[in-house]
Specification:
Blueprint: E1 4-6, H1 16-20, H2 40-54, E2 62-65, H3 68-77, E3 83-87, E4 99-101, E5 120-123, H4 131-138
Parallel strand pairs: 1-5, 2-3, 2-5, 3-4
Helix pairs in contact: 2-3
Length: about 140
């Protein structure tokens, strides 16, 4: 069974400057990529819930699929949170090894070492196409 948190219809504008003063910052929204950042309240609420699920363990990696606001808040709330951002927008390469290019049109084209390696998968893709498929690819069996 795949356990997935879907972040849909929670898109409230959050400017890049809100998070810019912290260690992990966001780039500005790109409406042509259907990007809309979460409000501060939404981002904090979801990040707190995900951190609870992690239970302070670096063994519970989090896959953030097309939700860079969540990634930024997770890292700013707990720099040791094991999170990986899967995102189409290559401006997020600034996150280094925590960034993986992800094209929802080709959900199976992921590095082999990342497949079935996540205990927590949070998805907020621009379209709900193939969300279950990508979650199944990333979610760890046990």
């Amino acid at each position: 069974m795949v356990s997935v948190i879907l972040e849909v219809n929670m898109h409230e504008s959050l400017s890049a400057s809100v998070v810019a003063s912290s260690k992990v910052s966001l780039v500005s929204e790109e409406w042509r990529l259907s990007q809309f950042w979460y409000s501060v309240e939404t981002a904090k609420t979801v990040a707190k819930e995900v951190l609870k699920l992690c239970n302070g363990s670096v063994i519970s990696p989090v896959a953030c699929i097309a939700c860079p606001t969540l990634y930024a808040y997770l890292k700013n709330m707990d720099p040791n949170a094991p999170a990986q951002l899967f995102e189409y927008d290559k401006r997020f390469e600034q996150y280094g090894c925590d960034y993986t290019f992800y094209d929802y049109n080709h959900p199976e084209e992921l590095p082999l070492e990342l497949k079935h390696s996540f205990k927590i998968v949070v998805a907020d893709p621009p379209y709900l196409v193939r969300v279950k498929l990508i979650a199944e690819i990333l979610f760890a069996e046990k």
